[in-house]
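Record type: monomer structure entry
Structure origin: computed from sequence
Chain ID: A
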Amino acid sequence: MDAQENETMTRVGPGTPAGETLRRYWLPINFSDEVKTEEPKIVRRLAEDLLLFRDEFGRVGLTEPMCPHRGASLEYGWIEAGGIRCCYHGWVYDVSGRCIEQPGEPAGSNFKDKITLKAYSTREHGGIVWAYMGPGEPPPFPRYDFLVREDGERTLNGYFRECNFMNQLDNCLDPVHATILHGRDVNGVRQNPERAESPEFEVLADDLFASYVARRQGPEPGKEWHREVSYTPPILVIHDGGSPPGDSNAYFADVAWRMPVDDYNTLSFILKFYPFKEGKSTIRPARNSPKPPPLMRGTRVKFDMTTVNGQDAAAQIGQGRIADRTAEHLGFSDRGVIQVRKLWLSAIQAVMRGEDPPGILRDLQDNEMLHFDVVGSGRLVNKGELVEHLPRIMRYASENFAPQNHLPKSFLRARRNYGFFARARFGRSLSSSTSKLES
């Protein structure tokens, strides 16, 4: 990759190719329960500092943060009178950015009608505040079933990481790193024992959807770990699509959005949706795994190498705040990484041509949902089971699960020509001889 491609792919501010492409989508801004009427706050998203507030009617506003009157910060304002009142001279703005009151101006003045804040459209789904930060009318909201279904429970989590969002997205279709980075013993404990074996895997992709399908040896003869992970632009990673409505298995969905704060920082939004099973919760207690003593590594910045989060942070932040992809040497095992970059660059190129990027569904109806048929989360299966399964996107009416499939043709062609897993054996399992970190 040359330097210009790297810049194009990673810079997210207004007017940049990637920034303008991101702004064509609905994006996660904040968790809903953190947006309170008594606490307006400044947030930074896509290299813009913005005011986030909730008015007394429960509506969420996302606007420029400075009052157009004299430049006071609206984060110190008061939630009242149908909007937020500037603490300095009392001008009031509603969630759409309209100035609706100016206490110091003459009665009957229409001056307020000439004043507006830049404001972005917002919605709340799945416990997350979403915003459309682009030009024109927003596209239909992508009604992913894990965001809009009501027959289950959701858990939400998030974290901040000091690197570009592409440092993280590069990681999503890279099953080999899961073995090397997360599958080894550290201080006597292995965080992901099901990933100790290097996988056989295949990569599939088209202009909307990229995935890997991986198999690892299971804990006993005749058993295998089956795992699929998918990416769709601009920033959504599907670790498990979960079960569709009506499926008695009630598998949970596990997804993440890598939302750029700016060019050098990323906020991850993690959502899990657990369908009810026979009317009961399917949330399982956290795995009671042994916790090793911390192993802090690093010279300038230290990370705990006994945890998955610490391991990922060390790898991704250690590449530099924006990875220098001109210096890479990518191999066959990196073909998932390559497909993520190709897919993202193709979305950018579509916007630069004046087209909608992939995933914008202008004809999506309010009674429709989107389901990712992605079998993730390391499912233990019998040998030979699920080998014919392909990750796919399914679109269906909420009241009638009658899916329309989205099948990546490129993967179907690869299977026909080469056979499943015929080309993808890597390394060996991490044995006990590698249980100690080398200096």
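Annotation 1: The two ends are 31 Å apart (CA to CA).
Annotation 2: The helical segments are 3-10, 17-22, 145-148, 165-169, 175-182, 308-317, 335-352, 409-418.
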